[in-house]
Amino acid sequence: MLHIQESLSHNNLLLSSILQSQPIHPQPSVSNSRSTRVIEQLQDKLDSVQKEVLSIRKQLESARQVKQQCELESQAYADSNVQYRATIQELIQTLETKQKSLDSTKRSSIHLETQVKKLKDEALASRKQLEDLRRKERVLERDRDMAVAEKGQTERQHLVLRECVQKLSSRFENEVVGLRQDLETVQGQIKVMAERSLILANGVEARIKQRTMERRQLMSQLTAVRTQMEANTQRFVDQVRSELQALMNDVYRTANRTDDFHSAVTKCRGEVSGLVARIRAYTAEASNFE
Asked: What total number of domains does the chain contain?
């Protein structure tokens, strides 16, 4: 733009010097042809200068328009510069606000990272607890299976014991029937002997009375033995039933404590064996009386 202004100034000065110069008048000369040539040259120069002036005027007008456009653009640039400065100020304020928000976000992010780490640690601890619980659950399931198996075995043993009790009861009943038959046989023999003793002599009568007394004592003893055996049998049956019921209650109540169950079964078997031995002893004593 400065170059254009300098060119315009130079052209204006040149134009002014040409316009302000005195007009050329033809002078009398020796040679008219020479004057004519000079005039023609000057005329050509004038035409050239006029053309140059027109061109310069056009350039000047164009330069004015360019200057006006540049002034408008400069004003617009100044206005936009003010607006840009305001916008930049707003952007700076926004940037400061964003920076503050970013700092707050960073602090929140650090806090959140701490919480995330804490949550991860808690998750790991919870996972370890879950694994421990699963292991305990597997142990409990295994213990439950063992308890169920032992419960089935206990029920089978209970059935075996019940069958044993039933067999003992039937055996005791058979023995009681046998004793009754023996008693009837003895009574029949006593009756026969009593009939025979009526025929015997008086000397034999005392002996028969003695034998009859002995037989009566034997009968009383047999009756007592039978009563005792029946009472013992009933007491044994009641005791076995109560012990079996207590054992079943213990089994249902303490299904997981197998050691107590085995000791209870062993104790029950010992008591059953003792009662069987006592019954056999009573049976042997009854056989000795016969």
From this structure: 1
In angstroms, the first-to-last Cα distance of the chain is 160
CA angle 93, 95, 100 (to 5 degrees): 95
**Global confidence as pTM:** 0.26
Contact yes or no for 268/244 (Cβ under 8 A): yes
Would you state the structure tokens that stand for residue 216, as one six-digit string?
Answer: 């009566």
Angle at 175 between CA 193 and CA 192, to 5 degrees: 10
Look up the domain containing 211 and give its range.
149-289
Digit-coded pLDDT (tens) for 148-193: 888 888 888 878 877 877 777 777 778 777 777 877 887 777 777 7
In a domain, 247, yes or no: yes
Query: Considering the domain boundaries, does residue 175 fall inside one?
Result: yes
The predicted-structure confidence for 195-248, as pLDDT tens digits, reads as follows 776 666 676 667 767 877 887 887 787 788 778 777 776 777 677 677 767 766
Angle 96-101-102 (CA atoms, 0-180°, nearest 5)? 95
In a domain, 114, yes or no: no
Long-range contacts of 48-56, Cβ-Cβ distance < 8 Å, separation of 24 or more:
49/15, 49/18, 52/11, 53/15, 53/18, 56/8, 56/11, 56/12, 56/15
Q: Is residue 4 part of a domain?
A: no
